[in-house]
Amino acid sequence: MDLTPKQSIPAAESTRFPDEVLERVLTLLKSPKDRNAVSLVCKDWYTADSWSRRHVFIGNCYSVSPEIVARRFPRIRSVTLKGKPRFSDFNLVPDNWGADVHSWLLVFASGSPFLEELRLKRMRVTDGSLEFLALNFPNFRALSLLSCDGFSTSGLATVATHCKNLIELDIQENGIEDLSGEWLSCFPDNFSTLEVLNFSNLITDVNTEVLERLVSRCRSLKVLKLNRSSSLDCLHRLLTSAPQLTELGVGSFSQELTPQQHAELKHAFGFCKNLTVLSGFWDATALNLSAVYPACSGLSFLNLSYTALQSQELASLLPHCPCLRRLWVLDSVGDRGLEAVGANCPSLEEIRVFPTDPFDEDMLHTVTESGIVAVSQGCPKLHYILYFCRQMTNAAVATVVRNCPDFTHFRLCIMNPGQPDHTTNQPMDEAFGAVVKTCKKLKRLSISGLLTDLTFKYIGEYAKNLEALSVAFAGSSDLGMQYVMEGCSKLKKLEIRDCPFGNAALLSGLERYESMRSLWMSACNVTVDGCKALARQMPRLNVEVMKEEGSDDCKADKVYVYRTVAGPRRDAPPSVLTFSSL
Amino acid sequence: MELQLGLALPTSNNKSSNSFIFGNDNNDMGNYTNDEVIVQSWLPVANNGSDGTECSAVNSRKRCRFIESFEDDHLPTNLKTLPLLQLAGGGGDDNDDNCSVVLNKIETEDEEEGDENDGDGIVGWPPISFRRKKKKKMWNHRDQLMTMMIVDGSSPSSEECGDGPTSMYVKVTMDGVGIGRKVDLAVHDSFPSLRRQLFAMFGLPEENPWDGGAGEYQLTYQDSEGDWLLADDISWRYQITRSRDPTYPSAVTLNYIAIACYLVKFQVGGGGRELTITEYGGLQELYGVCAAIEADEEQQQQWQQLSG
């Protein structure tokens, strides 16, 4: 009997989905990492991914050009762009450094005018760019500006005026020129689509009637973050008309209230059963703070980092927040306040303690090692800590990580550079050694205090999942940096300032920089020649040197190295020298 | 009130217009320089602060912390109470000599916003976002901003100011000069008038009024957060109202305000503020006013002698 062969299908076709099906499947993949992986499988999948990708995240705006992005993802709807190096937050980067968004907008306008969402961090954004955005992208609906600069409230006004479908307007921590609160009045009278409104960054008053009308029109409003000038009366009215809010940033909380007003405010907070995030609270008084208690039962994130609460005030508030997972406070709460955290927040996963007065040498407001230990004892799920303090011990840190071995983000800032363990006078090497040995999931680490090369040896040896490392005033020799470059294979971002690392250290990372997003080295011992050598050997890196006035010609004061497929940038100011092998 | 001795340090740096300011006993922010300057001080400098801070622990490239050098308890006590009379008559030759040591032509470069540094010797440390700091500071001044707007709207509202008297006295010290003076800020109404006053007080040659700010000395001031800002950037009115900060203890009738000129430093009592200076008919009148408000008898006599 003949075996009739099955109807043969050419091999290529048998594995070939129609493109539409493939794209449909791929839209279910949201994570950029997964999408990137998919695009590497084969050309068909690359193409399918390109056509179906809706969101792109660009961690360094100079790593790629807008033309390349627009060409590869012609139907992009949502872009997240990050610009300046993180140390620009600390005034280490000149103002005119670059990262202007305008060239991106121009390219998108011609290629993908269907852009709907733009999220920018540390980019330069002018009013002209905001106007261009508002006028050229008819479907635009979400704008988020974080730590950007170059624009004013006039720019916001054009966005409010022209973006008919705006869903999100999120303005945070920017260097904004705050001319007036008029921008809020630019939303059309029938405009009602807003779901996210965050103007906490702004100082000038907005018209409260306009605000209240806007809020009552926008029935889908979920996130509302007021600025400091918003009064408690206004807040009271807003809460009453928008009980559906899930995230609320209150305005000033120091106004004196009559008992009647206080009761009414508390009652209004009682309506807000859906609140998960509470922030704002500039200068809150203890009495006023008690008005929020009714809204705290479902709270997962409480940001009190703009008001200098005392320990008792925090201790009174926390029992009302049983579900708290994230807490940001100032160190005014002291160790006692942190003990209250440990005692009342069993579900806490993240704590950030900022300094009330970073230059307060009298230690009037401070937290010590006891505070952080107390939190770790009561909060076993803790995985994110940012802690500013003036003293620390190796033993305390070891205790903390023993209590909470799941840290993914460990950022400790002992504010006096190069300070040793204050009880033993030893370097803090063992502290961070304990962190990297115990916390296998550690992704981000910031170190401080008196540290020798031993710390880096530990990091290189144990911190195998480390992706971001921030180093200041540490190390004894080039070996320090070499340990890290050799050992931390997943490292993506490395920031170093004021360490004795020179050219040998810089060049030890030759093999690594192309798999990293960026390297920052300032006030180290690197020279211009070292940078040139790096650039010569690694053509796909941009090596930028920011010179400071009056420094030696051969010194590389600030070095910023990043991988790129776009070649050296052409918009660098004169103070930034770009070296490349081209 | 004691006269505070302000001493300038010769700068070896050629950078911008920042002066050295030290030891503000009323302001934790204390000193700062914008640039990385190695300063030679003729005062004994305590290189190891009691808390073992920067000077000892950090590599020598770092600036020494001026505040450690010049905190009150480090100052030789005699410096604190030098009698006013030594600098009477507009300073005299001694002052000129001292002045010449420190008088440097300032560069007219504006401070880069990015170089702003708050009171510490190290740029960008601790690593707090400057916007976070600025945000908090702006909030602290929010009430003062409100005050300003009301005053500008010409409604008589100084009720939010806790301080009764309309005089605002300023402790003036000058870099390179031993003695400080006191000035009533309420008497001046503009920066040029303040500058004239200061130049006269310290025996500096008169400025050419048509210089338009490109002259040799630049007026800067330190606000309560320790930021050094160009005085000319701020309106006079704003200055006046800002100095009436109701959050500061208002029990004192003397408001000492800090301003740092390239050479001249005003120190503020109660935490540091901007200043306003109104114009006097002359130095004598100025001293007379100071005498009128001076609480300390001995000092009062000295003021009176100066005023003739």
UniProtKB/TrEMBL annotation, chain A:
Please provide the Gene Ontology terms (biological process) for this protein. Answer: auxin-activated signaling pathway; pollen maturation; SCF-dependent proteasomal ubiquitin-dependent protein catabolic process
Keywords assigned: Auxin signaling pathway, Developmental protein, Nucleus, Ubl conjugation pathway
Annotated GO molecular function terms are: auxin binding
**Entries under CDD domains matching the protein:** F-box_AtTIR1-like
Q: Which residues form the F-box domain?
A: 17-58
GO terms for CC?
A: nucleus; SCF ubiquitin ligase complex
Q: Where in the cell is it found?
A: Nucleus
Q: Does Signal show up as a keyword for this record? A: no
Q: Does the keyword Kinase apply?
A: no
**Which pathway?**
Protein modification; protein ubiquitination
**Source organism superkingdom:** Eukaryota
Q: What is its main location?
A: nucleus
One Pfam family hit: Transp_inhibit
| Annotated protein name in UniProt | F-box domain-containing protein
Q: What is the lineage of its organism?
A: Eukaryota, Viridiplantae, Streptophyta, Embryophyta, Tracheophyta
From TrEMBL, chain B:
GO BP, one example?
regulation of DNA-templated transcription
List the InterPro entries.
AUX/IAA_dom, AUX_IAA, PB1-like
- Please provide the record's keywords in A-Z order: Auxin signaling pathway, Nucleus, Repressor, Transcription, Transcription regulation
What superkingdom heads the lineage? Eukaryota
Location comes to: Nucleus
> One GO cellular component from the entry?
nucleus
- Major site of localization recorded for this protein: nucleus
Biological function: Aux/IAA proteins are short-lived transcriptional factors that function as repressors of early auxin response genes at low auxin concentrations. Repression is thought to result from the interaction with auxin response factors (ARFs), proteins that bind to the auxin-responsive promoter element (AuxRE). Formation of heterodimers with ARF proteins may alter their ability to modulate early auxin response genes expression.
Quaternary state and interactors: Homodimers and heterodimers.
User: What does the similarity note say?
Assistant: Belongs to the Aux/IAA family.
The entry's protein name is Auxin-responsive protein
